[in-house]
Every structure is written in structure tokens, then in C-alpha cells.
Request: fold
Amino acid sequence: MPSLYLLRHGKSDRIAAVPDHDRELRARGRRAARLVGTLLGAAGEAPELVLVSSAVRALRTAQLAVEAGGWTAELSVRPELYQASVADVLALLAGADPALERLLVVGHEPTTSSTIERLTGARVVVPTGAIARIDVTSFGRADDGNASLCWLLPPRLLAAFV
Reply:
């Protein structure tokens, strides 16, 4: 059964002079991104493809996770994930290669939490730097009612596993 990972970008700086799209990660956000990468790599769950928002904080989160985990995943920047709706995420999933077993989407709130709820029925609030694993029948049919939330790990718990 394929696994969909949804990762909310790491904690970022809010500086009035910097546009939202261009916000950088804080040290805490960089640390959380590295923990995600290390955990998935060590668990043998490294994604084969990473779809990431074009926002600086999301892209940097993805890059740090890939580096820390030693993943060989293709990283695909998807501008439509910045300010995306759940429908936008589902459209990207529908276009994914059916041969993929592990796909990671790096994005933002409230879309990350809303996507989890739409796919699994679980009402969650995903904190910055947290990652969820959802098992689906296929990425193209992720919204068919057969998805299940396996786990949701906030950064504080990630440190306990790595």
C-alpha cells in the first residue's frame, strides 16, 4: 500500500519587511527538517518523490530533510502548493506516477491539516515541522475513503526517535 507523507514546513521567521513567500527558516525549523530526514531515512521510509511549495521556508525544509536523510528522492518545486487548497493537493496526487510507493508533500497550513482530514476523517492540527504518514490505496485515488492516518509526529517527538 502506498504511503503519502505530509510535512508542514519548519518554523520560520516573521519579519515585517520580508514577503510571506520569502520567509526563511529559524534554527528550530532547520533542526526539525533534519530530524524528519534522518527519521525517514533510518526507518527505510525515505520518499521517492518530494513535491514542495515554492515558498522559501518549505523548499528549505525539503532540502534539509533530503540532505539529512541521504534520500535519493527527486525534489519537484510546485508553485501551486503555495496557498494551495485541498483540491490542489489532490490534483497533484492524482497526477503522480502510480508506480510510486512513497510520496512526500511539503506545504503549509491550513492545507496540511485539512488534507489529512479530507483523506482520513481525522481532525488534527499540524504544527510547524510535523510530519504525517497516510496509507492510501493509490495516489490517484487517495480521496476514495480508504486512506488511513498511520502517525503524526511533531518535532518534539521526532527527537525521541532519532
The radius of gyration is 14 Å. The chain has a mean pLDDT of 94.
